[in-house]
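During the second half of the funding period, the structural biology subgroup turned its attention to how the target accommodates small molecules. The most pressing case was guanosine-5'-triphosphate, which had performed well in the primary screen but for which no bound structure existed. We therefore specified the complex as follows and requested a full 3D prediction, including the ligand pose.
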Amino acid sequence: HKVIIVGLDNAGKTTILYQFLMNEVVHTSPTIGSNVEEIVVKNTHFLMWDIGGQESLRSSWNTYYSNTEFIILVVDSIDRERLAITKEELYRMLAHEDLRKAAVLIFANKQDMKGCMTAAEISKYLTLSSIKDHPWHIQSCCALTGEGLCQGLEWMTSRIGVR
Ligand SMILES: Nc1nc2c(ncn2[C@@H]2O[C@H](COP(=O)(O)OP(=O)(O)OP(=O)(O)O)[C@@H](O)[C@H]2O)c(=O)[nH]1
Ligand SMILES: [Mg+2]
């Protein structure tokens, strides 16, 4: 099952990918291009593409879209200023023909940071309840401790075979 991990730079995408793979926090530097790893959850194989989120790289996200079953959108919950940009990117993706059948998991990451937005606040800001044409789920998490990551994966596995 093909998965793309998207979100703005510094959101924690690469940190999450390697938590999935190794249950460890790896030292990351900004991703140029992408990382790809196979993650197996309860006999379900996910091929996860972690894509660089810097502004100059976002225009090439669409080259990863074909055959994507799941979008993991990672949000930096402390980065209030740029949530509007995340919202734009989210709706641009949802309108894309190649992602018509994709389900969306939103990770409200960095929940360890003081003063961060809750998943409910992010959900409201992104007007997730208005999304009717894609299955979606929001999960709060902390990539440094791994908290919340398993619940996100469980939602993904629970979606498989639903359609
Ligand atoms: N406090 C805190 N820091 C985090 C968390 N997750 C990631 N980080 C840190 O955020 C920084 C960016 O993480 P990356 O995983 O490299 O971010 P990215 O989304 O892959 O960024 P790009 O590759 O540039 O798109 C790193 O210093 C991480 O250690 C978290 O849950 N809490
Ligand atoms: Mg990265």
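Two results from this model are relevant to the next phase. The chain has one domain: 2-159. The beta strands are 2-6, 34-41, 44-51, 70-76, 103-109, 136-140.
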